[in-house]
Every structure is written in C-alpha cells, then in structure tokens.
Design a protein that fits this description.
By secondary structure, this protein is of the alpha+beta class. The chain is built from two helices and four strands. A hairpin with a 5-residue loop joins β3 and β4. The longest helix has 13 residues. The chain is elongated and about 40 Å long.
Length: 70
C-alpha cells in the first residue's frame, strides 16, 4: 500500500465513522465490503486466487489479509 493510499484510507475512515474498514485489492480498487473485495481478486487458470486484500480498519494501521482464500 502506498503512502497516498494510506492517507486516503485514513481520511475516508475519519470522515465516515460508520465505515468499519476499507479493503484494497492489488489493482488499487477500494471496497467497503470484504466479500466484494475478495471477489475482485483475479484467479489463475486453476482457479486459485492471485494477490491479497489489504485492510485498513477504523483506528488501526493498514494490514494484509492472509485469510482471503476461503
């Protein structure tokens, strides 16, 4: 996650306290719903998910979601 993306997420969450978290896919697309974010990940020819979702929660720093494959 870039510095600009972290700043965007922090500002968005500050201005939207009802939003619990933001999810960022490798393409740089933001989601407020984790399932939409996970569904946006590309899959290889075998159907395995490529990439990971990064999560920014209210009051927390950005983290990478290692549980994005269910």
């Amino acid at each position: 996650m870039t510095k600009e993306q972290k700043e965007y997420a922090a500002k968005f969450l500050k201005n939207n306290p009802e939003t619990k978290a933001l999810f960022l896919n490798p393409k740089g697309e933001w989601f407020t719903d984790e399932n939409y974010a996970k569904n946006s990940l590309e899959k290889d020819k075998d159907g395995k998910v490529k990439g990971k979702i990064e999560t920014v929660k209210q009051g927390q720093a950005a983290t990478e979601d290692d549980n994005n494959q269910k």
